[in-house]
Fold this sequence. Notes:
- By secondary structure, this protein is α/β, with parallel strands linked by helices.
- It has one domain (5-274): TIM Barrel (Alpha-Beta Barrel).
- Helix content is 47%, strand content 16%.
- An 8-stranded parallel beta barrel has the order 1-2-3-4-5-6-7-8, surrounded by 4 helices.
- α4 (114-125) runs parallel beside α5.
Amino acid sequence: MKKPIISFEFFPPKNPEGVEKLRATRQQLAQLNPEFFSVTFGAGGSTRDRTLETVIEIQQDGHKAAPHLSCIGSTKDNIRAILDEYKSHGIRHIVALRGDMPSGMACPGEFRYANELVEFIRAETGDWFNIEVAAYPEYHPQAPTAQADLLNFKHKVEAGADAAITQYFYNADAYFHFVDECEAMGITIPIVPGIMPIGNFSQLARFSDACGAEIPRWLRLKLQGYGDDSASIRAFGLDVVTDLCEQLLKRGAPGLHFYTLNQAGPVSAIWQRLGL
Ligand code: FAD
């Protein structure tokens, strides 16, 4: 088996305590030798400076860092300035997204979809950036049909994406079906599954409702059944997610991208169980 591409996602911390906590998390996860750490970008550019600061710190520590960049609500000048800043700091990896319109913001700006952002990054910076895009094995919640979403994904790839990271899911078959459909359409870039460890049921249910990731009925009922027993939720979640990762790697997924929520514990536990 080829060495899996492993990456860890963080969000930019909001305050000095968060910065310290993330430093400790990163140091712990760095021992697992990931390919890169990615850092999210708040809707409408709300975390622009904090994303940049976090990415620079990761880079200065000797690790590869990939900032996320969302384009909705932004102008070309704005995006150009951000790309220039990343280039000047030697950042060569980026996760290019449309993002979601922040509430209260009315104007979509100069980009409508992520494929336009990918095209713009390529036109402005050539091959400088390794570009990742988002993929949705259970389809994007706003897509009118599965087929339309696949075609839109293909446009993003054709615009110049090098690889994709998926929305999280708990159903390995959905991922492999999606990958098969992509292959049938001539899409050959690596599509790395996004993995969300399970630690807190109500938070997971909230995320999943917002982003359209399904929590299968058996899993939802089982987690709900634990009520406030967070130790049992974590233990059961660890079994479920480890099993999912095992299946994904065994059946040929090119790697795993972990949504860490800035915590090292759950990912480290999955890692140990996987014996990677
Ligand atoms: P797109 O690829 O543009 O797709 C959005 C919708 O538009 C889909 O329904 C698609 O079918 C449709 N569409 C696409 N192109 C066209 C077209 N040309 N014509 C008509 N319809 C089209 N959000 C953040 O705010 N910050 C982050 O850091 C962040 N990181 C993420 C990382 C990953 C790995 C993933 C999976 C998601 C992330 N998101 C983030 C969430 C993401 O911004 C949302 O899911 C958003 O709704 C869609 O972004 P996208 O880049 O997938 O959009």
